[in-house]
Amino acid sequence: MSQQYESMWRELGLDLTAHDALLKVLAQGYHDIFLSQANRPTGMDYFNFVVSEVHGLRIQELMDAKRQGRKVVGSYCVFVPEEIVLAADGVCVGLCAGADFATDEVEKLLPRNTCALIKSAFGFKLGKVCPYLEAADMIVGENTCDGKKKSYELLGPLVKNLYVMDLPQVKSEKGREVLRSEYWRFKEEMELLSGVKIDAERLKKGIDAVNAKREAVHRLSRLRNSDPAPISGLDSLLINQIYFYDDPARFTSSVHKLCDEIEERIAARNGVFPEGAPRILLSGCPMAVPNWKLPWIIESSGAVIVGEESCIGERGTRNLVETTSESIEGMIEALVDRYFDINCAIYTPNPGRLDDIKAMKSEYGADGVIHYGLQFCQPYQIESIPVEKTLEQMSVPTLRVDTDYSMEDVGQLKTRIEAFIERIK
Amino acid sequence: MVVTGIDVGSRAIKIVQMDSSTLSVVNMKKTETTFNPKEQILKVMDGLNSDVYISTGYGRKLVQDVCGCEAITEILAHATGAKSLFPEANSVLDIGGQDTKAISLEKNGQVGKFEMNDRCAAGTGKFLEFMATSFQIPIEKFGDFALKGQPGLAINSMCTVFAESEATSLMAKGIPSEDIALALHLSVVKRSLSMLRRVSDVGPFVFSGGVAKNRCVVKMLEDELKSSVFVDEFPEMVGALGAATFAIYKFQGTRKNIAK
Ligand code: SF4
Ligand code: SF4
C-alpha cells in the first residue's frame, strides 16, 4: 500500500522513512499477535482490513471529507463529546498512541518520568508519523491528570490548532457546572471551526450515531460473558480501539454483524478458548493502538480476557445519552449527564470505578482482576492499591501490573501472569 | 514411579528426582546455567531416568522445548516445595541469583498473593555476590564475615553500583569492612522484607533460594521478623523439589488442594 498513499503522506508532512518503519513494526506485530490466533470469527476480517488500511484508506477518507469542507477533530480523552463534533459535520478521531517513538526527542521536552501515553503522543508528533494528528484541523486537549494538563502547554506550540477543554475533578454540582459550560463552549468552538450552526436536529443526529456505536459495543460486551469465550480479549480490545478511528455508521454495522456470528457461535458452543479457561477482567489505564502487550501476554498464557474496565473499553462506552429532549439545551444537558458519570481516576474521590469493577467481575464471570497501571500514572496507580485491597478482601484474586510500552519486562511479566493464572485456575 | 523437577534459574540449573511411592528424594543435581542454557539442560538431563518431568524457573520453556514436559512458574514451584517441606508454613521468601519473590500461602497450600522484584537485580543474590567480589571474599564466607561486624551502619543505596561506591567511600573513611559488609546484608534484608510484608506478615516463614545459605541474612531476617524462619538443608533446591512434588500430586491426583 505504500506507493499508493505516498503522495498523501507527503502532503501531510509525514517523515516517510520513519513512517515506513512504524508501519512495518505494526504489520509484524499485528500478524504475530492477532492473525495467529486460532478460530477467529470471520467477522474479524473487517477489522483486519481496517487495521491494514489504518494509515491508508481511512486517511484517504479523512482527506476527502476535508476537501468537502468537513473538519477533522482529534482528541485524547473520552470526555470529549464526539456527538458535538458530528453535529458540526465533523469527523472525530482518537489520537492516543500506544508505542514509544522518537523517545530521545521527547525526553528533551518532557521529564523521563512522564507516562508512556503522553510521551507517545509527543513522539508521534515529533517523529512526524501520525497521519491522524497531521490531518486534524483541531486537536482537543483536556485538563485531566497533571501530566496531560501540563504537557498540553508544551504541545500547543507544536501543533496548528490546540483547544483545551477544562474538566471537573469532583462530582459535585459545581463540577457538573464546569462540564456544562465547557460543552457549551466546545459547541461554539465547533461552530466557529466548521461554519455549521449546530441546531437540535443536527445534535440529535450526532447523539443517535454515537449511541448506536455504543449500543453495538455493549452488545458485544454482553456476549463475552459466555463460556467457552466466543471471542478473544485481544480482538475485543482491537474493536474498542478501532471505535476511535472508524466511520461510526460502518463501525456500528460491522460490530453488529460480528455479534450475529458470535451468537451463532455461542449456540454451537464454539469458542476461541476451551470451556472453563480462566477468565480475567482487565482494569486500569487506557490501552491505545498498538499497545497490545499485556493482553497478548495474558491470552498467550491460556487465560481469556472477558472485559476491559478502561477508557478504551467499558469506562469509555458505558451508558447512552438520553434522547428524550427535543431542545438543544435539553440535549446538551443529556450529554453532560452521560459524560459526567464516567468513572475516571481524575475524579476525587472516585468510588464509582470500584463499583464498576465489581459489577463487571460478576457480569462477565471473571475469576480474577488484573489491574493495569502505566508507570508514572498517578491517578490509576494510586487507585490500584485500594482496588486490589478491596477485591482481595472479597476473595477476588487481583494482580497489580505496572508497566509501560517497552518490551524489556515481558519475561518477568509473563512469569507473574502465569503464576496468577495458576492461582485462579 | 520416578518424577523429576527441573528448575532452570538465571544462575544454576537444579534437578530433584523423587520416588512417587515413598515421596522421598532419590537424586539431586546442580549445574551452572551459563550463556548456553539449552546445552546445559541437555547435558544435565542426559542419562536421567524418569517417568514424568516438570520444569520451572525462568528457563522452563527451554526445558519444554527439549522434552515436551509441562511447565509451572517458579512461584507455584516454590510455594509447593516450601509447603511440602514445612506444612505449617504461611509465607515464603525466596532470594535467588537474580530475583526475589515473596509468596503468601493459603491454608490449603495454594498460592495467595505474591510479588517479584522488577527489572533490576538489586537486593538479590547477585547484589551480595558483586559486593563479596569487591571485598575479595568468597561468597560462601561473606555472611560469616559480615556477622563479625558491628551493627549501626546503614547503606542507603539499593542500586548495586551506587551501593558499591557507598561501601568504597566508607572504607576510605577507615570503617571496618566487617561493619560495611553487615550493613550491605541489612540492606538486602530490608528490601526483601518490604516485599514480603506487602504480601503477608504471618509466620511461620520459609526462607529459600541460594541466599538462604547465608547465615547473616537468616539471622537478620529472624531478628527483623521477631520469629524464627524455616530453612531447608538445600534451600536452593526448593523450586526443583516443588516441581517434582507438583508432578506427584498431579499424577497421583492426591493433595489436589496444593497441586490443583
Ligand atoms: S483515563 Fe481519564 S483522562 Fe484518560 S482518557 Fe480516560 S477519561 Fe480521559
Ligand atoms: S495514563 Fe495516567 S498519567 Fe497517563 S495520561 Fe492517562 S491519566 Fe494521565
Please characterize this protein's 3D structure.
The complex is a heterodimer of chains A (425) and B (260). Chain A is 55% helix and 10% strand. Chain A is an alpha/beta fold. Chain A has a domain at 231-320 and 344-424: Rossmann fold, CATH 3.40.50.11900. In chain A, helix 10 crosses helix 16, helix 11 runs parallel beside helix 13 (248-267) and helix 14 (293-300) packs across helix 19 (410-424). Chain A is globular, with a radius of gyration of 21 Å. The relative contact order of chain A is 0.12. By secondary structure, chain B is α/β, with parallel strands linked by helices. Helices cover 44% and strands 21% of the residues of chain B. Chains A and B meet through helix 19 of A and helix 3 and strand 8 of B. One iron/sulfur cluster binds at residues 77-79, 144, 286, 311, 342, 344, 346 of chain A.
Provide keyphrases for this structure:
heterodimer, A: 425 residues, alpha/beta, Rossmann fold, 19 helices, 55% helix, 10% strand, globular, B: 260 residues, Nucleotidyltransferase, domain 5, 2 domains, five-stranded mixed beta sheet, 10 helices, disordered C terminus, binds iron/sulfur cluster
Bound compounds, each kind once, are: iron/sulfur cluster
CATH topology of the domain at 231-320 and 344-424 in chain A: Rossmann fold
Give me the CATH architecture of the largest domain in chain B, please.
2-Layer Sandwich
Secondary-structure-based class of chain B equals alpha/beta
Rg from Cα of chain A: 21 Å
Our count of helices of chain B gives 10
What distance lies between the first and last C-alpha atoms of chain B, to the nearest angstrom? Answer: 20 Å
CATH architecture of the domain at 231-320 and 344-424 in chain A: 3-Layer(aba) Sandwich
Number of strands of chain B: 10
In which range does the helix fraction of chain A lie? 55-70%
Mean pLDDT of chain A: 96
**Major sheet attributes of chain B:** 5 strands, mixed
- How many helices of chain A? The count is 19
Main beta sheet of chain A, described?
A: 4 strands, parallel
Strand order of the largest sheet of chain A: 2-1-3-4
**Large-scale geometry of chain B:** globular
Strand content of chain A: 5-15%
